[in-house]
Amino acid sequence: MFYEQPLQKWLIGAQILVGSIKMEARLWIKLVLAVAVISMSGCEKKDATVKKPEAKEIKQMSANKESFGKTPDGKQVDLYTLTNSSGIRARITSFGAILVSLEVPDRDGKLADITLGFDKLAGYLGVHPYFGAIVGRYANRIGKAAFKLDGVEYKLAANDSENHLHGGIKGFDKVVWRLEDLDDKGAGAMVKLSYISEDGEEGYPGNLACSVTYTLTEDDKLQISYEAETDKKTVLNLTNHSYYNLAGQGTGDILGHELMLNADKYTVVDEGLIPTGENRSVKGTPMDFTTPMAIGSRIGQVEGGYDHNYVLNSGGGMLALAAKVYEPTSGRIMEIHTDQPGVQFYTGNFLDGSVTGKAGKVYQKNYGFCLETQHFPDSPNKPDFPTVVLQPGQKYTTMTVHKFSTK
Ligand code: GLA
């Protein structure tokens, strides 16, 4: 008993000890597991951001091609679709290098097509006000449809009363562009299209080889970049003429959109919308968008609506903020950066319900706005404006970036 007692106690003590060690071991295991789970879940979270490529693999950045039909003279026309991992989808056709649609999420992630245009090629083959098109050789107006280079006068089509508008009768918006590249392996999903405009085409001098590249990036930017070379001195001014409605195309007018234009001046125009040569301050006038303002807030005070070239504060030459547009009901924001010196702000004043566009929507006055990044109108006849002359051996390169977000 004497021995038994301590032995028993010892055994009991040992059992308790083993038990508690087991308990502790279990606890320890649990603790270690918990730490592992927490740290692994931490890793998972980290990976989810770091591993964006995997997310990409699920939603897929892609660039595809399909047929969009044929022109009346039998030329094949393609439709290219660029998508990024956020689901933004841009469709471009080789006819006029037109941006056919641009689907962008709202603040709840719901996609809507924010550009005006047509579902089918037939719409673009008909008469329309340059929906989504690449405009050239000279976007905007050239006064009296003529200009001089080295003393030689070049006569162009007078297709806007006595003036020349957007490249003439058959501008770059009405020709079939050639596919150069369609790719989703690089910095974004991209399509590069090219066009050779022959010497004398629409009255312009020089064989001009030009290209436009649309790139949809993973950070929700649609970049439009242009390149061109000529074999004879010429003038050049390329832009994209998309009509935007950030609430969704065909849903109403754009008067509630809030616009900021990074421009203290605009080019004053005559009744034919040809600049007089004066760059006037916007301060204290309905032309002032240096701080965000609803497009419709003062439009009634601007005869005919906005259709003006703003002189960007950047002066051009390097990529800089030109405009920011916010649509309050959807929360969509579009920011435009460009290396061009000007931007034509146009409020779709000539839309009048005569065009039925995508999904059967009828486009009424002010149903879309354009922000055409460009050189100033009539620059070939205005020696004080930034030059639009392209010389042989010179390379024309310019870029405009549309960045999409929500708030
Ligand atoms: C540009 C012009 C407008 C009008 C449209 C097309 O924005 O500045 O005057 O011609 O193109 O309708």
Structure description:
The protein is of the alpha+beta class. It has helices spanning 4-50, 52-59, 121-125, and strands at 62-70, 76-83, 89-93, 99-105, 111-113, 134-135, 141-142, 146-149, 152-155, 164-165, 178-183, 188-197, 208-217, 221-230, 234-235, 239-240, 258-261, 265-269, 275-281, 293-294, 307-311, 320-326, 332-338, 342-346, 355-356, 362-363, 370-374, 389-390, 396-406. α1 (4-50) packs across α2 (52-59). The longest helix has 47 residues, at 4-50. It starts with a helix and ends with a strand. Residues 1-57 have low confidence and may be disordered.
- Distinct ligand kinds: alpha-D-galactopyranose
Distance linking N and C termini = 83 Å
Spatial strand order of the main sheet:
11-12-13-14-29-23-22-17-20
Largest sheet: 9 strands, antiparallel
Which radius of gyration do the C-alpha atoms yield?
A: 30 Å
Structural class: alpha+beta
